[in-house]
Amino acid sequence: xxxxxxxxxxxxxxxxxxxxxxxxxxxxxxxxxxDAQFHNGHETAFTRIDCLTxxxxxxTTSPIFKERDIVRIAKHLGMKVADFSxxxxxxxxxxxxxxxxxxxxxxxxxxxxxxxxxxxPQACREFPHTDRKNMREILGIxxxxxxxxxxxxxxxxxxxxxxxx
Length: 165
Description:
By secondary structure, the protein is mostly helical. It is built from nine helices and two strands; from the N terminus they run H-H-H-H-H-H-E-E-H-H-H. It has helices at about 5-15, 15-30, 35-50, 55-60, 65-75, 80-90, 120-125, 140-145, 150-165; strands at about 90, 95-100. The protein has a two-stranded antiparallel ribbon. Helix 1 crosses helix 9 (about 150-165) and helix 5 crosses helix 6. The longest helix has 15 residues, at about 35-50. The radius of gyration is 17 Å and the shape is globular.
């Protein structure tokens, strides 16, 4: 991970309480332009941040694998669904399928590229979720992601800076 990414995540750690307060306020009453704030921050963040220089999400967490993801990936790998599941997945406390370990076994260590990119799980396709509609519905996961993903941290920082001006 690049130093600038580490610095961005350090910002999130130092500002954890302010982020929590802001998100708690939004959960009670979100501004009408909340989606636009996130989308603008998302566009700006990804002009500066290349996921292939970070891959912290792939190194530290697991996406949720939906049944259709499992079937598609197993087929792509030429494996039976049961073999793929027993080799790579486990159920979490909510009953969702997640990886057995991290980093992700499909992460190419040298390049941070995904070896199953064209078939990756829906959760990976949509990550970090800061460009979707109805951001208020996913503020909990977005708050968590602000401490995991430098791009999300950057988005939250830009919004927090704007709110505090």
